[in-house]
Amino acid sequence: MDGSVHFLDGGGEMGKAIRDHDWSGNALGPPDGWPSALKIALGMALNSKFPKCIVWGPGLITLHNDAFRPILGNKGNVLGRSFAEVWSEAWEEIGPIAERAYAGEATFIEDFPLVIDRYGYPEQCHFTFCYSPIRDENGVVRGMIDTVIETTGKVEATRQLRLVNGELGHRIKNTLTVVSAIVNQTLLSHDGPEAREILRQRIGALAQAQTLLTDSSALDAEIGQVVRQALTPFRTGQRRFRIAGPPVRLSARQALTLALAINELATNALKYGALSVPQGAVDLGWTGGRPGSDDPFRLLWAESGGPPVASHAGKGFGSLIIEEALAQDFMGESVIRHEPEGLRCELHSRMSHLGAGEGEGAPG
């Protein structure tokens, strides 16, 4: 065997680390006595800019180049350690692939999903890699080389693009359905200049909600933003609205329906309710729980200080939006009550029904 360690030349920081490492307690022993096949494979790996890891012998001893270090994250110094130990959290998946390499069979896999722990928590990642056997001068497999690149970012970007494209088509369909309903319901109960003005206001409220969703790269919206955007045309700086509630994510459809419902409630309050008199006010609050859980979600619109409340016969567009569409899209219950203190609108649902991908039932 060649007793030189020149195979480490040009090996960057890891080449120096291998030179400086104490190998006395390792089955490999000092580098100058390593087998020729290992020296050649490791020298090539160390001089490569592509992430590579040499796994050697029955103990699966780990040796890697500089480019492989980011893949390890905060796993620390793994030189000389068992590859199975280093990746113990994923060994159930990658162990059989390593066994095939040791049996002489190379494996190439693209965008392989693995849950790994390199920063102190489980992390869903994806890798494209090849496990190739390393043979000695007699053709006997002594180890393998792991040539790998992390593709988590690419896979997530592709998934996000697919979701965005699907969401875009869904939003267009939903918007056309809602606009059609607005036009039909408005023309059933109004005509002439009044119909035009009401139609303009309602479609304007829809456009405001769409702007909020379009300006965000997310597939959902935060309820506080939806509420404040919907109330913008009705706020005079006189603190007539008292708004309170924790951050809660709504799906695009839920955001649109809630914005329309708030627009209808505020318009009614301005004409007949608390906002029609100087001393009137509106409390709008909501409570929630853990995202995705069965914890209850509750939203309350409560008017006070307004004129006596009269219950209207029949159901107009506002009632349909609040008591039917809102309940359907939030998969819960929504009721309007005309109480002596003022109009109340209450929505009940569960946190598991809120957010992107939820509340996307049949068009309402």
From TrEMBL:
Residues 167-247 form the Signal transduction histidine kinase HWE region domain. Pfam families: HWE_HK, PAS_4. PANTHER family: HISTIDINE KINASE, TWO-COMPONENT SYSTEM SENSOR PROTEIN. It comes from the Bacteria. It comes from Paracoccus versutus. The keyword Nucleotide-binding applies. It catalyses: ATP + protein L-histidine = ADP + protein N-phospho-L-histidine. This is histidine kinase.
